[in-house]
Amino acid sequence: MTKQEYEKNLEENLTSLLKRLHQMAYRPQPVKRVYIPKPGSDKMRPLGIPALEDKLVQAGMVKILEAIYEQDFIGDSYGFRPGRGCHDALRALNLEVHGSAVNYVVEADIKGFFDNVNHEWLMKFLGHRIVDKRILRYVKRFLLAGVMEEGRYYVNETGTPQGGVISPILANIYLHYGLDLWFERRFRQSCMGTARLIRYADDFVVTFQQKADAMRFRQAVEERLASFGLSLALEKTKVLEFGPLAVKWAKARGEKAETFDFLGFTHFCGRTQDGRRFRMKRKTIGKRFTAKLAIFQEWLKKNRSRPIREWMPIVVAKLNGHYAYYGVTDNYKSISCYAYEMRKLLFKWLDRRGKRGSMNWNKFNYILKLFPLPAPKIKVNLF
Questions:
Q1: 286-331 pLDDT, tens per residue?
Q2: d(Cα 222, Cα 211) in Å, to the nearest integer?
Q3: Which residues on neighbouring strands pair with residue 109, listed in sequence order?
Q4: Distance between CA 95 and CA 279 in Å, rounded?
Q5: Is 207:97 a contact under the CB 8 Å cutoff?
Q6: Containing H/E element for 205?
Q7: Is residue 241 helix, strand or coil?
Q8: Cα separation of 228 and 120, whole Å?
Q9: Which of 74, 196, 238, 337 ranks highest by number of CB atoms within 10 Å?
């Protein structure tokens, strides 16, 4: 049912929904699974589409769970939380590297996290703070609602509801008990030097002063996650030297200091503008850069027949959106390159609107005068 159809008898539909919820008669519907192209890859990405009423119920449950768990979550958990975002996680990492004795970084990624959440463990975690059995039963029902794909029904034995509004907070609760508290209360207490875990959803990095602590964590976290049915993506997990001393160590070996990826950025060791001090810098991950251009080109290809006055404002919005996220301290070069490549693609597909070669730079510049593109600009200060 669409929003428009549901709205026609809104009061009646909501009254019926509330009655079924109170009577424990509400049953979530299976999520409709479709596949969409994965940018920069030949693979297809699964996308879950929940029913409208399921979205409404989940949104209400999220408010309840947030009221309970927001006071419990650690300060360095940034994913899908009110008033927090990727830039906050990046800023925390930036300040930690520059303000503490950081010599090593463990870059980690959990393999297929949202598909491998163990239902039994999740319900145990929820039971620590929630005594209302109705809430617990409805969470369980959403977990077991299943998936519809091409007319066939599949039962979910693991994982959180695909595309569900409730999935992010369930993920945070799972990792709060499975990873965050273990690190804060047990592992970090045993470290010889400083250590800090910064997590955004299932993507996290850990900074260390001592190599022994970093190496011990790499093994211990794999064992810890395995006990809850999770595993690390080995190709995205590594221990590396990073920081002022790492530059000296790498130089002594005739090498460059290593880099790591986090939240769409490649972080690398650099120097301040005057060259006197160490500075962690960042740039857009190469694959992300290429993938976003591929998405833009595909959009231009599909919309090239529309009037210019309709789609140029959308192009402007896309550029502004890119700057809003990737326009962070030290990333000016990457966003400038992105703007340049977008202009080239724009010229290419404007040229293909008519006879090949009909567009020239004079015409193109005239269009840009009518519909000016925003200039690259750093939007977020990470200091």
A1: 999 999 999 999 999 888 888 888 989 999 999 999 999 999 999 9
A2: 17
A3: 203
A4: 11
A5: yes
A6: strand 203-208
A7: strand
A8: 10
A9: 196
Distances (CA, A) of 208 to 198, 216, 302: 12, 11, 48
Give me the torsion for CA of 195, 198, 204, 206, rounded to 10°. -10
Contact 69, 191 (CB under 8 A): no
Model confidence over 41-60: pLDDT tens digits? 667 777 888 999 999 999 99
15 band by pLDDT with thresholds 50, 70 and 90:
very high
Band of pLDDT at residue 188, cut at 50, 70 and 90 = very high
Q: Is 200 within 8 Å of 89 (Cβ atoms)?
A: yes
Handedness of CA 360, 362, 364, 367 (dihedral sign): negative
* Pairing assessment for the beta strands 31-37 and 44-49 based on DSSP bridges: antiparallel
Please tell me the distance from the alpha carbon of residue 327 to that of residue 144, in angstroms, as a whole number.
41
Global pTM value = 0.92
CB 31 within 8 A of CB 164: yes
Residues 198-219 have a mean pLDDT of 96
Are the C-beta atoms of 271 and 277 separated by less than 8 Å?
yes
CA of 273: how far to CAs of 244, 267, 270, 278, 382, in Å?
A: 15, 17, 9, 10, 16
Amino acid at 164: G
Which residue carries 């470290």 as its tokens?
191
Please tell me the distance from the alpha carbon of residue 161 to that of residue 49, in angstroms, as a whole number: 10
CA distance 197 to 96: 10
What tokens does 272 get? 């301040």
Q: In what order do the strands lie in the sheet with 278-284?
A: 260-262, 265-271, 278-284
Over range 104-128, report the average pLDDT.
95
Tokens 């145990």 locate to 124
For the four alpha carbons of 100, 101, 105 and 106, in that order, the dihedral sign comes to: negative
In angstroms, the CA 206 to CA 214 distance is 8
Structure tokens at 105: 């970084």
